[in-house]
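Troubleshooting entry. The earlier prediction with N,N,N-trimethyl-histidine gave an output that would not parse, so I re-checked the input for stray whitespace and re-submitted. Clean input:
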Amino acid sequence: VSTIAASHAGLRDPELAQRLRGALGTRPRRLPVECFYDDLGSALFEAITYLPEYGLTRAEWRLLCRHSSDIARLVPSALEVVELGSGSGRKTRLLLEALARRRPLPYRPVDISAAALEACRREMAGRTGVTVDPLPMPFLEGLSAAIEMRAPSSAVLVLFLGSNVGNLEPPERDRFLSAIRRRLRRGDALLITADLEKDASTLEAAYDDDAGVTAAFNRNALARLNRELGADFDLAAFRHRALYAARERRIEMHLVSERDQTVRIPALGLVIALAAGETIWTESSYKFRRGDLAALGRAAGFSGTAAWQDDEWPFELALLVAE
Ligand code: AVJ
């Protein structure tokens, strides 16, 4: 997994620190999504994908299994793949194998987690025809770097999987898809997935599992502020909460302060007072309807070529082609 614009400086990256100050310093208090994904956070997310309640990853896996040969047929055979947010690469392997059946395939995973890129490289080791070239960078920088390396006669297929598009607020999401499109040529493609809406209790269980892994993933964001910015959050005084806002069609994840408390974050020059019951809103995960991905793609300059859904856990995979 991971994100749009952090760097190896971690939370001390000046641009991120500035956004953090704004997000935490005013109400409603929020955290930028980047805060989740240090190496530990990436490992905790990887654990989430094994939870019985978290159906997204298995749905995506089924869709990629079922349709990788359809996808291979729909994209040019001279191809380079750039993946934004490689994670462990487990699910991508399958698709890459289908694509590399025709010719050698350069694969450039982009991720700010060095650990995730290393896992990804190991996963691909020895795959015939796939050459892995990891880019430890934020998504758009990595995509630009990959585009500079492209062979002139090859098309680029960008992968943006994991329903990661759902973590972006709608205006940011539209800008991000347009930013991808601007870096591509006509005929390049974007393979993207999104979780579809389903009943609130199923969704809330997916983000508040019995084993408490998602709660640990959520708390790690604050633990990072303690580790990296010298903050003094008392993690035991925050409760994990996930709720589905049906009107906005998003899961909201919060950390609820269980008592009045004052927290110091020296590296941000910030002292914040949290009232009992006040929350830090750590994540939104938007849910979509069938066909939404093609519509989002069209608005960003792609045409929707094909879309597939999983029926067991409503989820959508779409192939968009740059116009
Ligand atoms: C990063 C989009 C895959 O929103 O479902 C999982 C992150 N947060 N559990 C999602 C997440 C809590 C996840 N994605």
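This one parsed fine. The chain has a mean pLDDT of 94.
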